[in-house]
Amino acid sequence: MLAGRRRQLAGSMSGGEQQMLAVARALMSSPRILLVGRALGGAGPHPGEPGHRKIRELKERRQLTVLMAEQNFNQATKIADRGYIIVHGKIEFEGRSTRELRENELVKKYYLGV
């Protein structure tokens, strides 16, 4: 992924590459929790491959807690162990499983268009 760009200045990398570099830098300190926004959508090594898959792999391999702000419900549930629906800054629902989230009326209304 980024190995071939070791000598390249970060500012000259694409946006997705810069996002991957930021995660790599964060992981150098062996954190127990990783905070990510929009989970690197489109930052995978191939065009169109979301970074969500890499975040999930990192979570499992390094036993990380991942706190992620994500508006794409389907992508978020590929990583999430639990989720919170926040409306106007207030937690309106906490789902303790993907199934619980998918069955919630707020989720259906705001995210799934049901």
Question: What this model shows, in words?
Answer:
The chain is α+β, with helices and mostly antiparallel strands and 114 residues long. Strand 3 and strand 4 form a beta hairpin. Helices cover 35% and strands 18% of the residues. A two-stranded parallel sheet has the order 1-2. Strands 3-4 form a two-stranded antiparallel sheet. The protein has five helices and four strands; from the N terminus they run H-E-H-E-H-E-E-H-H. The protein folds into two domains: 3-80, no CATH class; 81-114, no CATH class.
Provide a brief overview of the structure.
The chain is 35% helix and 18% strand.
Number of domains: 2
Query: Describe the biggest sheet?
Result: 2 strands, parallel
Alpha carbon gyration radius: 16 Å
Which residues sit in consecutive blocks of at least 5 with pLDDT less than 50? none
Shape: elongated
* Number of helical stretches of at least 4 residues: 5
Task: Tell me the series of helices and strands, N- to C-terminal.
Answer: HEHEHEEHH
Give me the count of strands.
4
Secondary-structure content class: alpha+beta
**N→C terminal distance:** 38 Å
Strand arrangement in the largest pleated sheet: 1-2
Secondary-structure topology with pairs:
Blueprint: H1 15-27, E1 33-37, H2 52-62, E2 65-69, H3 73-76, E3 83-87, E4 90-95, H4 98-103, H5 105-110
Parallel strand pairs: 1-2
Antiparallel strand pairs: 3-4
Label this structure with key terms:
single chain; 114 residues; alpha+beta; two-stranded parallel ribbon; two-stranded antiparallel sheet; 5 helices; 4 strands; 35% helix; 18% strand; elongated
